[in-house]
RNA sequence: GUGACUGUAGCUCAGCUGGUAGAGCCCUGGACUGUGACUCCGGUGGUCGCGGGUUCGAACCCCGUCAGUCACCCCA
């Protein structure tokens, strides 16, 4: 029988990597906490309809990337491909959005059936932040500032660039899309297959094509900025000046178009060149129409999401991984002294509750146990020896280069002695 | 979904034009050492991703399949 293995594109995260993940998660928690955001948790499965109506019927995500199936009741369900739709559904369903402001955050796995590659997996983790009921650019700036604070906390700010754009209201985008379509129709002989596919369904997506021929063609195309309302432009200008005063550098990228339909006005992405093809680490923007579109009372909103795997990759390639936790004390236990070791370990953990106290299990010579203590990077070894123990003493050894001492300590004093040293 | 490359011990890899597998590291037992580090001796561990085919014989050739990597596409 063939060995069972993980589903394609779904990764196990092993002990060697979990410290980096924990560092990332705790940094995120610290940042959202000090910005006053509250956690919300919502299911991994939703009605397929929710994603179709929010993300957009003709987007790649719902067209070909969702894990959808009929459950036993015949309802069509989907694993969430992103967080915003479920967050809005949950918040609206429980009345969190009715005439009030909310600052929310979530984290968890998302699912998209794409061909896996570096920084892109079929199950992946996102952190997301959503803010409801605030119409001005001040909240947009706050969201960006929050993300920038996280980069600072992680020490990766210098490897990230902020790109922003104003994509206007959906009606404006429709008008622009029509203009873009007719422009491209006039040059249909120069369009690549992908552009031809999107010509009528989603022409704006042609804007960020990586095909140089398309980009050459688009130089002469109508500009989205010319179709955006004065209000949108003013909102965007205010955002830029807020970012300026906050000291957050940005680039205006007129080609920046988000892949989900619900965005409007200002959108942004944090990008890096440290990750190969997956340059976007964080993306978001305003989505003022989504709540109403999903059946709620009209509520303005903005938010962003970031990909944890990509951030972990960045931490690794930039050498910002935390050190693996090392034991403070390793107890060397000769055969027949398990009870003494257990009692000693309990006493040490009571005195030093934050430290890792490892007691050797499985027997073996003291010499090889000590070797294990060194291998694990333990700072001290508490060596039980029968003749010493009869005198109520234990041997304490410092195992690091700086602390290469060896001393005999009364067993009862060992917790206090170690507390002094550590 | 498309393309290119890859798939041999836990890890990193070798295996010439086909003759049923090797090294280093790791782990482990022992010797030595004033109870780890250096040195010496020994040991565990492989359906050569999987399934077919060609052949007297395949890790090596052919087909399929699964998985990985990178890129396209798309996005976090």
Question: What does this protein look like?
Answer:
The chain folds into two domains: 18-169 and 228-317, 2-Layer Sandwich (BirA Bifunctional Protein, domain 2); 329-421, Anticodon-binding domain (Rossmann fold), CATH 3.40.50. Helix 1 packs antiparallel against helix 5 (137-154) and helix 12 (338-351) packs across helix 15. The chain has helices at 18-34, 48-55, 60-64, 84-93, 137-154, 170-185, 193-201, 212-218, 230-246, 290-293, 308-317, 338-351, 366-375, 386-390, 414-421; strands at 38-39, 45-47, 68-70, 76-79, 102-111, 123-132, 161-166, 251-252, 264-271, 280-286, 301-307, 329-332, 357-359, 380-383, 393-398, 406-410. It contains 15 helices and 16 strands. With 422 residues, it is an alpha+beta fold.
Structure class: alpha+beta
Our count of domains comes out at: 2
Report the CATH superfamily of the largest domain.
Bira Bifunctional Protein, Domain 2
By CATH reckoning, the class of the largest domain would read: Alpha Beta
Uncertain segments of ≥5 residues (pLDDT<50)?
A: none
Specify the number of helices.
15
User: How would you write the strand order of the largest sheet?
Assistant: 1-5-6-11-10-9-7-8
According to DSSP, the number of beta strands is 16
State the distance separating the first and last CA atoms.
52 Å
Q: From the alpha-carbon coordinates, what is the Rg to the nearest angstrom?
A: 28 Å
Mean pLDDT equals: 92
How does the major sheet shape up? Answer: 8 strands, mixed
CATH architecture of the largest domain: 2-Layer Sandwich
Helical content band = 25-40%
> What percentage of amino acids are in beta strands?
15-25%
Reported by name, the CATH topology of the largest domain is: BirA Bifunctional Protein, domain 2
General form: elongated
């Amino acid at each position: 029988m063939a060995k069972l293995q993980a589903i394609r594109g779904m990764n196990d995260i092993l002990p060697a990597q979990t410290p980096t993940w924990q560092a990332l998660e705790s940094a995120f928690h610290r940042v959202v906490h000090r910005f006053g955001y509250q956690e919300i948790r919502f299911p991994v499965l939703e009605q397929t309809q929710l994603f179709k109506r929010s993300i957009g019927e003709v987007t790649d995500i719902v067209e070909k990337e969702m894990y959808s199936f009929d459950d036993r009741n015949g309802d069509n369900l989907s694993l969430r491909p992103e967080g915003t739709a479920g967050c809005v559904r949950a918040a609206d369903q429980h009345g969190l959005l009715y005439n009030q402001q909310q600052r929310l955050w979530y984290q968890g796995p998302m699912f998209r059936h794409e061909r896996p590659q570096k920084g892109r997996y079929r199950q992946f983790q996102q952190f997301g932040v959503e803010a409801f009921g605030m119409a001005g650019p001040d909240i947009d700036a706050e969201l960006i500032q929050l993300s920038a604070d996280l980069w600072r906390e992680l020490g990766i700010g210098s490897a990230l660039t902020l790109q922003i754009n104003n994509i206007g209201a959906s009606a404006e985008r429709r008008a622009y899309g029509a203009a873009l379509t007719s422009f491209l129709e006039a040059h249909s002989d120069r369009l690549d297959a992908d552009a031809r596919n999107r010509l009528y369904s989603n022409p704006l997506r042609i804007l960020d094509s990586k095909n140089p021929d398309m980009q050459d063609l688009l130089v002469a195309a109508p500009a989205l900025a010319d179709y955006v309302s004065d209000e949108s432009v003013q909102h965007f200008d205010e955002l830029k000046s807020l970012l300026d005063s906050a000291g957050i550098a940005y680039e205006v990228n007129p080609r920046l178009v988000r892949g989900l339909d619900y965005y409007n006005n200002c959108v942004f992405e944090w990008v890096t060149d440290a990750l190969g093809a997956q340059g976007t680490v964080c993306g978001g923007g305003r989505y003022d129409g989504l709540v109403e579109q999903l059946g709620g009372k009209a509520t303005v909103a903005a938010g962003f999401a970031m990909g944890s795997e990509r951030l972990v990759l960045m931490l690794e390639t930039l050498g910002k991984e935390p050190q693996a936790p090392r034991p403070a004390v390793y107890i060397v236990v000769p055969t027949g002294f398990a009870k003494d070791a257990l009692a000693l370990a309990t006493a040490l953990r009571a005195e030093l509750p934050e430290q890792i106290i490892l007691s050797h299990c499985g027997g073996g010579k003291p010499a090889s146990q000590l070797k294990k203590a060194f291998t694990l990077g333990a700072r001290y070894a508490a060596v039980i020896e029968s003749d010493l123990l009869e005198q109520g003493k234990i041997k304490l050894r410092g195992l690091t280069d700086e602390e290469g001492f060896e001393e005999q300590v009364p067993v009862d004093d060992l917790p206090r002695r170690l507390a002094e040293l550590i």
